[in-house]
Amino acid sequence: MTGAEAANALFVATILVYASAMFAYALEYAFDRRAEKRVSEKELVAAGNAVVDRAAKDRASEPAAGAPITPAAARGAGRLGLVLTYLGTAALAASIVTRVVYTGRWPWGNMFEYTVGVALAGMITWLVLVSSRHVPRRLGLFATFAVTMVLGTSVRVYTEAGPLVPALDSYWIVIHVTAAIAASGALLIGCVFAILHLLKRRYDRNVSDGKAIRFPLNVAERLPDATALERLTFKIHVFAFPLLTFGIFAGAVWAHFAWGRYWAWDPKEVWAFIAWVVYAAYLHARVSGRSAKANAPWIAILGYAVMLFNLTAVNLVFDGLHSYAGV
Amino acid sequence: MKKKIRSFARRWWHQLTSMRTALLLLLALALAAIPGSTFPQRSISPTDVDGYYAEHPDLAPFLDRLWAFDVYTSPWFSAIYLLLMISLIGCVVPRLGVHLKALRAAPPEAPRRMEILPYHRRLDGEVNETRARAALKQHRFRTVRREADDGAVTVAAEKGYLRESGNLLFHASIIFVLVGVAVGSLFSWYGNRILSEGEDQAFCNNLQQYDEYGLGAYVSETSLPGFCLQLDDFEAEFTDGGPTSYDAEVTYTVDGDEDAYNLRVNHPLNIDGANVFLIGHGYTAVVTYTDRYGNSESRHQPFLSMDAALNSEGAFKFPDANFNPETGEVDSGAEVGFDAILVPTYDDSTAMLLGSEPELNNPVLALTAYRGDLGMGDGLPESVYSVNEEQVASGELEQLNDEAEVIGVGDTMELDDGSTLTFDGVEQYAVLQVRYDPGGPIVLVGAVILIGALLPALTVRRRRYWIRWNPDGSVEVAGLNRNDYDGLEEECDALTADIAPDFRPPKPRTDSEASIGSTS
Ligand code: HEM
User: Fold this and answer.
1) Looking at the domain assignment, is residue A147 inside a domain?
2) A166 contacts B27? CB cut-off 8 A
3) pTM of the prediction?
């Protein structure tokens, strides 16, 4: 097997493993009835006694009415999902390392490699959040879904790994592109949380208004508290915004060396600027007034839409200096 | 009346410097930037703008009146960012005053009823004041002790001032960056030049010798530093049909001193603050034309690449050919020109003219010859990369061969009058950009400050903490976060435990806001 084939095999394995993980998380998400217990957690804790807790645990050993598996089995599926997520991420990293070894260069040379990097950064962000207990495991359903979508899209722009064009042959590729990839990956997860928050908020409102809950709102039933989701969204953006800023500045420094000017409103630069401004607007909305804060998650989603546009449309449709980054 | 105006102005000033306006202006700026990526921009590629004009002759002038081809210098784009700047300054300056005062002031007194604060505990047992203040100091709180009339003693503590410092510095640095950009646009200049190999091709730093140039408003043509530059050798390396490195050996002369430099992409040459960048390359075809009287002329003609395989187009023009030694004049209607395509790797086993590889493995020229009036004398600017099509269309220039003639290096194309064009060989040229931008370093410093200030502005949290010894002997502590964050309770409990060793924090409460961690 050549290096290229090995890298591709690992890549395909990653997608399959992530898809299985997604299925496992889905089982936990749907059938772990403890999630319901969590809704009433406050009373449980307020009662503050172990008897109630044990009662809840006993209940947890039987499947809820109509559910095909027990909550304990569902949690087992969730644990399996997490293990698979780690495995898939290791395979993805190995695939990238293999590419590095046989091309002998940094692995961010074309759009395919960039997109794969974003998937890896997104999943690492997610795993850090889960292992630091910032988010419940079962939400891995949404993270694996988002990342698998990104990986699936990257296949459409698959490029044979080749050598780098001269402008890319610089250590700035390490600095600039790595920062951009890390920021995009983290922002992907931030966007997922913004969406989950909006879903849950809508769900809560419909519940309190006594309105019917239909798809996709019913998915929100097992989501954590809407306020907590919003805070997490904000935290992720607080982490990612300086990274994005740094990535853009590093790009400007590199543009100085490679193209003789640090900023010239090349389409990629225009859309990076727009993304930055939209995320700055998100942070401002978050800290100013009630109504602006309520709209902030929408601005975060808009920000990610701009990031995606910059990655896809600007590479494929517009004619600019970044176009040679290869499709 | 005066009062009315003043209150009106104040109201508007408030509006402009409000956060909501800043928000809207930020989003407006994002929107306004979009057309710059959908329409060709003069500042990037004037030829693309001309192309747009040719394609949409009706729409283009209308768009032009809306500055669609100069978005980033347009009045509407400028208006938005100027408003944003004013809003920014109006926002930063008063806050700077407030913050400077806060930096000097003591942490404020606790409210009388401390239990209304988000964190509040009653402590049993002794709390030693000296020890408490030492603990607060160790946690880098700023503290002040106050005694009330009723005998209550309060220690107020606050930390996290760095957040606001960072925030103000961050916003100020944006202004700094924009000043750098403005300085750049006023004092910078640049010139682009295609430079072929060889001593006789050298050029010097003045506007006449650039193919394209731009001067900032405060730069005069005569103030450019004098230096000359020559390309000794250029090498492009290719792997699998793609370029992997460009390597230019150049010699430059400043004030009579000669020096050599190995110019590469990403490795510019600095001459007196101006940078010389290698931004591209291409092929130069060398030909010799021998006219019907036996006079020879050589041309080193740079060709423009048309694709990634460096199939390139160009033209050779000989307006002074066919000088008749008997009449002492150029024969009328006997100027000669050739349109040519240079194919670096010609594969004669296929019917295709264009090659698929950029390396010089079997270079050929595909030539179409013309004779007549090249139309070069009429003073209009014209392309050096093709013969004038209008002259052909009007019959002033006669096309001599219907099908392009393909010749290799060393081969000769013979015209009907016995004159010949010989393909002597191919050289390389480098595309150079020379740029001087004194705003760059200012922007860089601003950017470094911006990032450095952004981190504390986003991550530091401002919080307050109070201890009160009540006259009745009881002790209360309380905490308040001034920024939205969720670790207040844990942090304050840890602090309280440091202050009062026998304090036991209550069982961790699963506050729905504090944690959404999974396992119970
Ligand atoms: C080019 C325009 C601007 C950009 C890119 C920008 C960017 C930012 C960023 C990234 C933050 C950090 C958010 C945070 O602390 O949570 C921030 C905070 C802030 N900005 Fe701006 N800003 C701009 C203009 C303005 C203007 C015009 C105002 C005045 C109305 C303003 C007022 C504030 C305030 C009050 C904060 C602090 C929020 C806090 O205390 O946490 N900004 N800005």
Assistant:
1) yes
2) no
3) 0.85
Better-scored residue on pLDDT, A179 or B186:
A179
Q: Both ends of chain B: CA-CA distance in Å? A: 68
Q: Beta-carbon neighbour count of residue B97 at 10 Å?
A: 10
Contact flag A170-B266 (C-beta cutoff 8 Å):
yes
Return residues 24-43 of A near B (CB < 8 Å): 34, 38, 41-42
Q: Convert B482-517 to b/e letters by CB count within 10 Å (16 or more is b).
A: eeebbebbebbbebbebbbeebeeeeeebebebbbb
Q: Measuring CA to CA, which residue among B217, B222, B249 is closest to residue B234?
A: B249
Residue with tokens 């392009």: B404
Domain that holds residue A163: 3-316
Asked if this assembly's ipTM is beyond 0.85, the reply is no
Backbone angles phi, psi at A176, to 5 degrees: -65, -50
What is the C-alpha to C-alpha distance for residues A101 and B72, in angstroms, rounded to an integer? 43
Phi-psi map region of B10: left, alpha, beta (phi>0 left; psi -120 to 50 alpha):
alpha
- The model's confidence at residue A68, banded by pLDDT at 50, 70 and 90, is confident
Q: Which residue of A has its CA nearest to B439?
A: A262
In the sheet that B463-469 helps form, which strands lie side by side, from edge to edge?
B119-123, B475-481, B463-469, B153-159, B142-147
How many structural domains does chain A have?
1
Q: Which of A284, A287, A293, A299 to mutate to test the pocket of ligand 1 (most atoms within 8 A of CB)?
A: A284
Contact status, residue A314 vs residue A271, Cβ threshold 8 Å? yes
Helix (H) or strand (E) holding B182: helix B161-187
Contact B451 A225 (CB under 8 A): no
Q: Does A71 touch chain B (CB under 8 A)?
A: no
pLDDT tens track for B85-119: 999 998 889 999 999 999 999 999 888 889 999 99
Does residue A327 belong to any structural domain of this protein? no
Asked whether residue A55 carries a pLDDT value surpassing 50, the answer given is: no
Q: How far is B171 from chain A (nearest CA, A)?
A: 11
E strands, A105-259, are none
Query: Does residue A325 sit within a domain?
Result: no
Q: How far is the CA of B182 from the centre of ligand 1 (A)?
A: 22
Kindly report the number of other CB atoms within 10 A of residue B271's CB atom.
19
Distance CA(B83)–CA(B16), nearest Å, equals: 8
Evaluate: CB of B19 within 6 angstroms of ligand 1: yes
Cβ distance A264 to B433 less than 8 Å, yes or no, reads no
In A154-173, the residues whose Cβ lies within 8 Å of chain B are 162-167, 169-170, 172
Distance B462 CA to ligand 1 centre (A): 16
Nearest residue on chain B to A56, judged by CA atoms?
A: B520
Query: Considering only residues 292 to 321 of chain A, which have any Cβ-Cβ distance to chain B shorter than 8 Å?
Result: 292, 299, 306, 314, 318, 320
Q: Does the distance separating the beta carbons of B27 and A277 come in below 8 Å? A: yes
Residue A19 touches chain B, beta carbons under 8 Å: no
Each residue's pLDDT tens digit, B377-414: 766 667 788 888 888 888 888 999 988 999 999 999 99
Tell me which chain A residue has its CA closest to the CA of residue B25. Answer: A281
Local confidence band at B165 (pLDDT 50, 70, 90 cut-offs): very high
Tell me, yes or no, whether A177 lies in a domain: yes
Using omega within 30 degrees of 0 as the cis cutoff, is the peptide bond preceding A216 cis? yes
Q: What is the pLDDT of residues B261-272, one digit of tens each?
A: 999 888 999 998
